[in-house]
Structure formats: structure tokens, C-alpha cells
Amino acid sequence: MISRRHALTLLAAALQLPVSNAIAQDFPDGTLRLIVPTTPGSTPDLLARTISPKLSARLGRTVVVENRTGASGNIGTEAVVRAAPNGGTFLIAASSLAMNGVLTNQPPFNAINDLAPVMLMGWNRLVFVTHPGSGIKTIEELVAAARKSPGKLTYGSPGNGTPNHLAAELFKVRTNTHLMHIPYRGSAQQLTDVLGGQIDMAPLTAIVTATHTRTGKLVPLAVTGNKRSPLLSEVPALSERGFDGIDGNIWYGMFAPRGTPSELINRMNAAVREALRESDAALSQQGFEVAGSPPEELHQLLMKDTDRWNKLIKQQGIKAE
User: Fold this and answer.
1) Please, which residues have CB within 8 angstroms of residue 304's CB and are 6 or more apart in sequence?
2) What angle do CA 113, 272, 5 make, to 5 degrees?
3) CA 265, CA 118: separation in Å to the nearest integer?
4) Closest by CA position to 178, among listed 201, 204, 160, 194
5) Contact present, 27 and 85 (Cβ < 8 Å)
6) What is the pLDDT of residues 118-172, one digit of tens each?
7) Of 32, 57, 63, 75, which is most buried with the most CB atoms under 10 A?
């Protein structure tokens, strides 16, 4: 029995095609890796583990998820940048990828130049919340209170330079307010403190917000951006309240090493689109909104967000922890 590679070589000869091009039409034999630069249980990890068995069935390859954490996601991302561009390695990353270039003094890569976009997979919307004891019930009341006593109100985030942090800083700039930032090492203590009233406000994901607003433990003020969350359809978007241009929602995308053949990127795009479609109901329950897009849409989004977040980081003097 001839090998698959040998068969492709014979096919290339019969069709008078270069052998390398014929072989490049398919994924490499063996295992395909989905590298996640965040911890197990994070949204990128959830996405990777949800779609991996479906991708395996469609592509006829074993698909494994590898968590490569550290350096604000740069370790896992660099592993993909350095991987062979043969369709064997892919990255699932969040919009923080667009923020790390300025936050890292000497980034080991340029995300725009060194990664090939595959698909914008979807969104996780952020919601500004406060605790009932604050007496603040609307986003307008938050702005009024912050303007009345600049620096008195506090807000928490999972850490310096996180999407939650930058969403709140963008809000401060656009509303001409000053709230004191309290950075935490992760989201657990941030959530505990806003529930307990130790901080006045926090930008939380829709799924976390919905869990606690239904029991009355948190008061949702507004969803960042111009669209409501399906999980919190009663909560207005910031743009509905006249606060435009404050889009701090988190997006998630799949990337490949630069130089990966377009045929493989398009095949992976189609496979991921179907895997997400089949998983839509389950992911929606986690607050994830499925997108699915051609590669170019993710490329344009990465460029736009890299520009706007880097300007904000410099303007606000934000430093990585």
C-alpha cells in the first residue's frame, strides 16, 4: 500500500503539477494542534475544546488543545508564530492580542505581520455593573457621580492591560470622568469585591453578570458598544444612552502561522464555521455570540483594534503588570 504522500506525488506527476503544491492542498499527517495562550476554563479554552472533536471528524485528523500560558498570552502566541506554516498548528486568542504590542516593551512578534487570520469566531460582551448598596441604578447616574467627585468611585479589573481594564479606561476618556482603577490578579477577587461593595463598579462578561443580576446581587448599568447582549436583553447598550464609541467587547479569533497556504486556511475556516454552527446553542448559554467570518474580516478587526487600543494605552499611561 502506497503512502498518502506518495499518492499525492503520483497525482501531481499525472496532472503535471509541482509536487509541493499538491502536498500543500491537505493538512499534514498526524495531530493538529490548537494552541490556547490562556488557562483552562477561559473562553478561548472553552471554544477550543468545544470545536476540537468536530474539527477532528471533518478534517480526518486528531485535533488536540494545548494551553501555553504566560507573559500575557505571548508565550502561546509565539509558539504559533514559530510553528511550521503547514496547517498543523493554529492559535485561538482573544482581543487582548491587539493590546499586547504596546504593553510589552519588546514583543517577540508582530501579530498583524506574523500571524495569518483564519476566522473571527465570535464575541463576549462586557457589562458595567455595580452593587445594590451603591445607590447607582443607571449608567447616567454613574457618570454624574463620577463627575461630582472625581477619583472617589473605584472600579476593578482582572489586571492592568486586560480588555476589561481598557474598556473602563475608554469609558473614562469618552465620558470625561475619573474613576480609580483597582487591578486584581484575575477575575475571582474582582468579582468578590464588587459583590461585597468593596469596589463601586466592574466591567464583567455577560454570563457572569447574568448569574448575579438575576438574584439581585449586582445591578447592570449598560453593555459596552452598540448592541445588547442576548443574555441580558433588558440592559441597554451604551450607545442607546448617548455614549457612542465605547466598544470594549471581547472578540475571539483563530490564527495560523504566517505563510500557511490559503487552501488550508479556507478549509479550516469552513470546518470551524460548521463546528461553531453546531455548537451555537451550547456556546450561547455561556454568553458567547457566534460570528464566523472570512479571514479578511478578522485581519481588518485586528488592525483596527491594534491602532485604537495602542493609542489609548499610550494616552492613559497604562503599563503591564
Assistant:
1) none
2) 80
3) 6
4) 201
5) no
6) 999 999 999 999 999 999 999 999 999 999 999 999 999 999 999 999 999 999 9
7) 63
